[in-house]
Amino acid sequence: MTLFEARLVTAFVDGAGSSREDRVAHEEPLEIQVQGVSCAVVMRTPGHDEELALGFLATERVIESVADVVSVRHCTTAEDPESEGNVIRVVLRDGIDLPLERIRRNTYASSSCGLCGKATIEAALSHGPPLAGGLTVSAEAIYLLPDRLRAEQGAFTETGGLHAAALFDDGAVLSFVREDVGRHNAVDKVVGAALREGVPRNERGLFVSGRVSFEIVQKAAAFGVAIVAGISAPTSLAAKYGDALGVTVVGFVRGRSLNVYSRPERIR
Fold first, then answer.
1. How much is the average pLDDT of 29-36?
2. Is 113 assigned a catalytic role?
3. How far apart are CA 213 and CA 15, in angstroms?
4. pLDDT score, position 111
5. Who contacts 209 (Cβ-Cβ below 8 Å, separation ≥6)?
6. Could you tell me which residues come within 8 angstroms of residue 78 by beta carbon, excluding any fewer than 6 positions away?
7. Biggest distance spanned by C-alpha atoms of the chain
């Protein structure tokens, strides 16, 4: 599945227009069904959909490992041709609770703003104490991350319209680089990939290509990753609840500089 598609555009330079081919990021809806029930519809870049579904359920604290999942696969009997390839079904093992209303509420809150965000924050803070321990890393290692992530962003090079996320270790080695039109989807794909591979999450940090939002910090905390760093700014809630959730939030990683907004003890 390609991450972009060609489109004819009219380009204007100094007031003069001409037709040329451009490449735009591929975006389609994905419906995530769990136990036969529709839980969420996310706008995503097709590809790594199983990882996206697993990561979504992990960061919503529905599952803790792939042992909680019996199967995850695309629906092959969609009635509407437009839905083919855009519905994924997850079957959980017996005994796993599906908090349907909370998932639906949080999915709505993460795509909007205002009062509904309060529900997301309360839900994030209601799952035990803040993260302790976790990866520690030098500032020197973090300085390397932007260039290393950029080198892996093939679809962004073609379109300029995709976010990226990856896990990193204390040597600034990246793993599970994923691109998507949605920054949260890119994170969920990375989480899903790490979940499948059984990566020790307390030995990894999360690096993103743009700003660090509260939802990204919440997803990292839910998965057990204690450092979130990004090329751009964090939001006020990301910084504030980084402390509350035990997550080190790092922003403006550019050149040989960075800012640490919470839990600075993990950065050497």
1. 93
2. yes
3. 37
4. 44
5. 149, 150, 153, 156, 163, 164, 165, 183, 230, 231
6. 84, 86, 87
7. 64
Number of Cβ within a 10 Å radius of residue 38: 13
Report the C-alpha gap between 68 and 90 in whole angstroms: 10
* Residue 231, token pair as written in the block: 């090329």
Question: Could you tell me the domains of the chain?
Answer: 28-125 (3.10.20.10), 139-266 (3.40.140.10)
Alpha-carbon distance values, 232 to 41, 54, 184, 241, 259 (Å): 27, 27, 15, 18, 10
Pairing label, strands 37-44, 28-34: antiparallel
The whole-angstrom separation of Cα 128 and Cα 76 is 39
Cross-strand partners of 34: 37, 90
pTM score, whole prediction: 0.89
How many of the other CB atoms lie within 10 Å of CB of 104?
Answer: 13
pLDDT tens digits, residue range 140-152? 999 999 999 999 9
Spatial separation of the C-alpha atoms in residues 91 and 75, rounded to whole Å: 12
Q: Is the pLDDT of residue 120 over 60?
A: no
Beta strands in the chain (DSSP E): 4-13, 16-25, 28-34, 37-44, 69-74, 87-92, 163-168, 174-180, 205-208, 227-230, 248-254, 257-262
- Bridge partners, 87 (sequence order): 31
Catalytic pick among 39, 75, 113, 116 = 113
Q: Give the whole-angstrom CA distance, residue 138 versus residue 142.
A: 7
Pairing of strands 248-254, 257-262: antiparallel
